[in-house]
Structures are given as structure tokens and as C-alpha cells.
Write a structure and sequence with these properties.
Layout: E1 2-3, H1 4-11, H2 17-28, H3 32-37, E2 42-43, H4 45-59, H5 64-68, E3 70-73, E4 76-79, H6 91-104, E5 110-115, H7 121-130, E6 141-146, H8 149-161, E7 168-172, H9 177-180, E8 191-196, H10 203-207, H11 211-216, H12 225-228, H13 230-245, E9 250-255, H14 264-271, E10 276-281, E11 287-293
Parallel strand pairs: 5-6, 5-8, 6-7, 8-9
Antiparallel strand pairs: 1-2, 3-4, 9-11, 10-11
Helix pairs in contact: 2-4
The chain binds S-adenosylmethionine (SAM).
Length: 294
């Protein structure tokens, strides 16, 4: 019988150790700690076959998160499938910025709407953290919207596994549109937080993106026409109408591509002339979040 040590020796040139250990752990349905502390563990034929097939997929550059079927984001665990974008570490900056804003804001009721929710990573993280006593904001409402029904299915699964399925309503539709059907949403005089990590890669940047991203992750989650800004402009147009009809207090947090910092202020002013606009950097020092206050 072959052991974990044998497998590590056989494959260490093909994959890096961390990926290989996570793949072995996944095939054994054990933790990585188990793998590294049981190197003489004997592997059944079925487990060996599973490890081999995962190694082949990884060697072809399939993202590890799709092989393992999940990804950590903001310290929480999220199921991912090829229908959902894999949550990125830089998106944690957007969650941080919302929390920093809320810490400074009043404790009044909030409606938090996440547009382009994907695996639900942003809204689920916010719902979990805001339920914590440190942040407790009474009666807050949480919504996650996506145009992809498959993504919404995964987001609902993740809300359940993270213990917040009662708190979040997931809606199918184009950007903010599904919220217009919820008549109370924009009428009550309480503040609204909108988060959106919509597709924002320009044609040029999408074409230059790593082949494994293009091959495995959904293009509909990444690419946007008009220099990557078509989805955000469509959202600004919807917001323009919303404000004209209802006039609520809205804070918007968008994840952006760094070079969009120079183009966005003009585009925002065109549709939302009274908006205050600020930009924040991510941990890598790149412009990543656009905060718009209406
Ligand atoms: C960049 S992914 C972000 C996913 C997730 N929020 C995250 O941070 O990892 C963009 C998401 O927006 C969704 N999307 C694209 N166009 C949309 C639209 N017009 N209305 C709503 N969602 C849209 C995609 O299906 C995808 O799930």
C-alpha cells in the first residue's frame, strides 16, 4: 500500500507542497493538519485514484478552489463552483471599508444590498459580522442580487452553511431592479448601503488575464464593455432614477480596477451630480474601492 509520503515524493515536482497537501486532505476528507501529521497513512485504491485525478486537474492549472469546491474569504468558508467567481483577497478591502464606515455611522436601521453577489461572500460576511454584538445594528436587512441563477443557488447554500440564511434575501435580476419590486425598500427614511463587485475588466485587461482565469472562471463575472465601466454606468443610471423617485440616503461601495480611479469621477458626476466620491487602496497599495455618498 502506498502512503502519503510516497505520494508527496511522486508529485512534489508537479505541484507545490501546499496544493498537494490540500488535495490529499480533500481526497481523504480530512484536514491538512491530519495529512502532515500522518505521513505513513496508507491510501486505498479509491483515494489514490481521487488524488491522481485532482493532481491532473491542478497540473492543467484549474484553480485549486474549484478542485476543493470551496474558498476562504474574510475568515469564513464559501462553496464555489465554475458558476461563481472565486472570492479574491482584494475584495476583503471592500468589506473592511463598509465596516469602517458603519463603525463611524449612527446605529440606526440599515438596508445592505449586494449587487453581483456571486458566491455571496460579501453580503454573507457582512451579515455575519453585523450580527456580532460589537456591531449589532438592530433590524438591519440584507439582500444579495445576481443575474445568474446558478450563482444565487450557491449563495443561498453559503448563507445556510454560514448560519445567516434567515437574515439575507437573495433576488434574481439586473443590478438594482429586483429591489424596485420591494416597495418599502427605498421609501423608509433609513440608510442604505450598496456593495457591488460587478464585472469591471476592460477588453484589454481581460485579454491579458492569466489563461487559467479565462479558461475556468465565468467571463460574465469578469468582463464589462466600455473600458470595464458599462455595468457600473448602468448602475449609476438606475441610482439616478431611484434618487429622483425616493431620495433616500445611500452609501455605495464599488470594487474597481485601479486605472478606473481617473475615469470614474466624471462618469459618476454625469449621472449623480451631487455625489461625494472617495477612493481607497487595497492591501497591495492599489486603488480598489470607490465610495460614493448620495
Ligand atoms: C466579479 S463577480 C463578483 C462575485 C462576488 N460578489 C465576489 O466578490 O467574488 C460579478 C458578479 O456579478 C454578476 N452580474 C453580472 N452582471 C450582472 C447584472 N447585470 N446584474 C446583477 N448581477 C450581475 C455575475 O453573475 C457575478 O456573479
Amino acid at each position: 500500500m502506498r502512503t502519503i509520503t510516497d505520494i508527496r515524493k511522486e508529485y512534489f515536482k508537479k505541484l507545490d507542497y501546499l496544493d498537494l497537501e490540500l488535495i490529499i486532505a480533500h481526497a481523504l476528507k480530512k484536514s491538512r493538519e491530519f495529512v502532515v501529521s500522518h505521513l505513513e497513512y496508507e491510501l486505498s485504491e479509491a483515494r489514490l485514484a481521487a488524488i491522481q485525478s485532482f493532481v491532473v486537474r491542478r497540473a492543467k492549472h484549474e484553480p485549486l478552489a474549484y478542485i476543493l469546491g470551496h474558498k476562504e474569504f474574510y475568515g469564513f468558508d464559501f462553496k464555489v463552483t465554475p458558476n461563481t467567481l472565486i472570492p479574491r483577497p482584494e475584495t476583503e478591502s471592500l468589506v473592511e471599508d463598509v465596516l469602517r464606515h458603519l463603525q463611524a455611522a449612527d446605529r440606526g436601521q440599515k438596508t445592505v444590498i449586494d449587487i453581483g453577489t456571486g458566491s455571496g461572500n460579501i453580503i454573507i460576511s457582512l451579515a455575519r459580522i453585523l450580527s456580532d454584538s460589537k456591531f449589532q445594528i438592530p433590524n438591519s436587512k440584507f439582500y444579495g442580487i445576481d443575474i445568474s441563477k446558478e450563482a444565487l443557488r450557491i449563495a443561498k447554500h453559503n448563507a445556510k452553511s454560514n448560519g445567516v440564511s434567515e437574515k439575507i434575501k437573495f433576488l434574481h435580476g439586473n443590478l438594482l431592479e429586483p429591489m424596485f419590486e420591494i416597495h418599502s425598500a427605498f421609501r423608509i427614511p433609513h440608510s442604505i448601503i450598496i456593495t457591488a463587485n460587478l464585472p469591471y475588466l476592460s477588453r484589454e485587461i481581460y485579454d491579458a488575464t492569466l489563461p487559467n482565469v479565462k479558461k475556468y472562471e465565468p467571463k460574465s463575472a469578469l468582463y464589462s464593455p466600455d473600458e470595464g465601466l458599462a455595468h457600473y454606468e448602468a448602475l449609476f443610471k438606475q441610482l439616478e432614477k431611484t434618487i429622483a423617485n425616493y431620495g433616500p440616503q445611500i452609501e455605495i461601495f464599488l470594487e474597481i480596477s485601479p486605472e478606473q480611479k481617473t475615469k470614474l469621477p466624471k462618469l459618476i458626476k454625469k449621472h449623480l451630480p451631487d455625489a461625494r466620491v472617495e477612493f481607497r487602496k487595497d492591501l497591495a497599495g492599489k486603488w480598489r474601492v470607490c465610495h460614493i455618498a448620495l
